[in-house]
Design brief:
The chain has helices at about 40-50, 70-75, 110-115, 125-130, 140-145, and strands spanning about 5-10, 10-20, 30-40, 55-60, 65, 80, 85-90, 95-100, 105-110, 135-140. By secondary structure, the chain is an alpha/beta fold.
Length: about 150
């Protein structure tokens, strides 16, 4: 049984750590390191809680062919149950891109497009998952979209 049920955004975050400060317009910036990890408010929360030894089950947006394999691999040896996630093989999946320099963190994504598409790519929170959890975390913005 999970201790915590989380519902919200789970995606792949592509982070780029810059060598120096964010470059001025029309100049060049060097990428020092690249990371491709689980992200989103719910994905990040689940990762932190699992690191602290908490049993988590999460649900939310649909996974796509470019994201599910990464999410599945990322959580395979962690105390995070992803069995409620829906995997749509015809959908690419949600990703964001984050540029990080010595002083700032700037995310880029396509979330306005995601919410405006006619096809709604997220599950409803499952009552059976909620009632067995000791603690429930629901992303209020995302839940309002249901």
């Amino acid at each position: 049984m999970q201790e915590v049920y989380l519902y919200g955004m789970i995606l792949v975050t592509n982070s780029f750590l810059l060598q120096e400060e964010y470059p001025q317009p029309d100049t060049y910036g060097e990428i020092k390191q690249k990371y491709r990890l689980s992200g989103g408010e719910t994905g990040t929360c689940a990762t932190v809680l699992a690191h602290l030894g908490v049993q988590v089950k999460m649900d939310g947006n649909h996974m796509g062919k470019n994201t599910y394999p990464i999410i599945e691999d990322f959580y395979k040896n962690k105390s995070v149950d992803i069995t409620s996630l829906y995997y749509d093989t015809e959908y690419e999946g949600l990703e964001d891109y984050v540029l990080i320099d010595k002083h700032t963190r700037t995310p880029f994504g396509s979330f306005q497009h995601y919410y405006s598409e006619p096809v709604k790519r997220w599950n409803k929170a499952k009552r059976e998952d909620i009632v067995v959890a000791k603690v429930v975390g629901l992303d209020p913005f995302f839940v309002m979209k249901l």
